[in-house]
Amino acid sequence: MTDPMALVPSDLLERVTRGWRDMSTRLVQLGRDRPEGNRGVFVNPAAERGSTVLFSSLEAMDRAGHGRYGPELIYGAMGSPIQHRLEAVIAEIEGGAQAQVVPSGLAACTLPLLAYLGAGDHCLLSDSVYGPTRRFADRVLRRFGVEVTYFPPMAAEGDLQALVQPNTRLIFAESPGSHSFEVQDIPMLGRLAARAGARLVVDNTWGIGLFNPFAHGAHVSVQALTKYAAGHSDTIIGAVTVASDADWRPLRDTAIQAGQTAGPDDCWLTLRGLRTMGARQERQAATALGVALWLQSRPEVSRVLHPALPSCPGHEYWARDFSGASSLFGVVFDPAFTQADMTAMIDGLSYFGIGASWGGYESLVLPTSGGISRSCPSVTAEGPACRLHVGLEDGAALVADLARGLDSMSAARAVRGTG
């Protein structure tokens, strides 16, 4: 079996994995109790479950209610001790000041749209955003009187400036796009937002811990903690992080008013998952890079959409702004193959599960052409395309699995050509 790691140059391997290694110690230490005096503590904090919170007096209850912008225990639907602990950890990882944990990644995407936009406002969204975010913008924001314009993720600053309107209040980016993997120029979008007096929201799920959005001009960072943070494909949870009080208060108020808080068990599982995220992703990112380089050498493959490779749109921004890479990337096949060819290949794989999401310990595959809504031309339209998430399996086993699938795809095409 081919060992894909033999294809990886040592300097590129270091570049891809350094960020994960650098954060591993912090991930183990953050948000934990420490023994004091003769008092012992559990390594993992407890998940306290509850709805009603009791107070010693009405005055104490009223005082707690006025502390809703901090980690105050008020009512179960407004946050629990383990949620507040997780929020503090996420804020530090993201480089922000405050974080709101919510029930899903989609809730994290939609909460800032609800918090910062109103009837008559205009929103610019990257055409590469997560499909359900797009659906929310088209079916809910428009119904509430918000104008929505999609922009090409690799558009130049001048072209984007032409799309800004006097009522533009928010720019929403996803970098890299979770289906087409364009890495966006976030500092440029930050300049654009500053000139417009708008907020820049970045879906930073792929780059958790590897990219500090606030150091590059963003006001709000979105995380689907379901992915790398929870890490075991058994939790649905998200977070929104901000750096300023002016951004925090409307976000927190909207979360409370919409009932957007996560349950204590999901928070506990995510906090536990974070402890090993650095170690998991250092290994998975390395294997993913090896698999990507191997795929790049296959005749069936037209382009590999891995941000660490020059073949990916916006690679130069990844090289400039990120401290590492994740284990999710895309593959575009030669246009001579059909969508049906790719479907048969995917159906025949053994180690790559077919399913939505990513970031867990297991490898996954999902088509990214034929069913993804886009307003602008996408690199995934160049040929049949799919997304691969590389898990903790042995890289040689994954390559052998893909090799069997690609060989079968080529053989089927050859038979079709001679039939």
Automatic annotation (TrEMBL):
GO terms for molecular function: cysteine-S-conjugate beta-lyase activity; pyridoxal phosphate binding. Keywords: Lyase, Pyridoxal phosphate. GO terms for biological process: L-cysteine catabolic process to pyruvate; transsulfuration. The keyword Lyase applies. Its cofactor is pyridoxal 5'-phosphate. InterPro entries: Cys/Met-Metab_PyrdxlP-dep_enz, Cys_b_lyase_bac, PyrdxlP-dep_Trfase, PyrdxlP-dep_Trfase_major, PyrdxlP-dep_Trfase_small. The keyword Lyase applies. Gene3D superfamilies: Aspartate Aminotransferase, domain 1 (3.90.1150.10), Type I PLP-dependent aspartate aminotransferase-like (Major domain) (3.40.640.10). Pfam families: Cys_Met_Meta_PP (PF01053). It catalyses: L,L-cystathionine + H2O = L-homocysteine + pyruvate + NH4(+). Transmembrane segments: none annotated. Coiled coil: none annotated. Belongs to the trans-sulfuration enzymes family. This is Cystathionine beta-lyase. It comes from Komagataeibacter intermedius AF2. The lineage of its organism: Bacteria, Pseudomonadati, Pseudomonadota, Alphaproteobacteria, Acetobacterales.
